[in-house]
Amino acid sequence: MSNNLKISEIINSDSAVSTSDGNIVYNKIEEFLKEASLVYLDFEGIKYLTTAFLNAALGQLYSQNYTSDFLNQHLKIRNVTKANASMFHVVVKRAKEYFDDKEGFKGSAESAIYGD
After folding, report:
1. Which is nearest to 94 in space by CA: 81, 105, 85, 82?
2. For FRET with 101, which of 12, 59, 75, 92 sits at 20 to 30 Å CA-CA?
3. Domain ranges within the chain, ordered by starting residue
4. What's the gap between Cα 39 and its chain centre?
5. 12 and 44 in contact (C-beta within 8 Å)?
């Protein structure tokens, strides 16, 4: 079974920019991934896209019990502009790094903010 999630219809906007909208999309994705269904994220009609939205919608999937292989097999992206495609790579890379070493990221962030 496959499911096509049209982002603009889920968030009722052509702007995928907020974390709250990203969380709405995340919850939809999660419903289908729990059943090991194939999910297509369709970005047709989306004019504006931010990493904040993508972190909420996709990045947190890496905090769950999903492997990269599982997500690569069950989550497909459609109708993304070339300009926006690079954001997906950045978000996925950072999510993998973060969830592989949360404590290291926390320490680095605190050091950057508060000093050693």
Report:
1. 105
2. 75
3. 2-114
4. 13
5. no
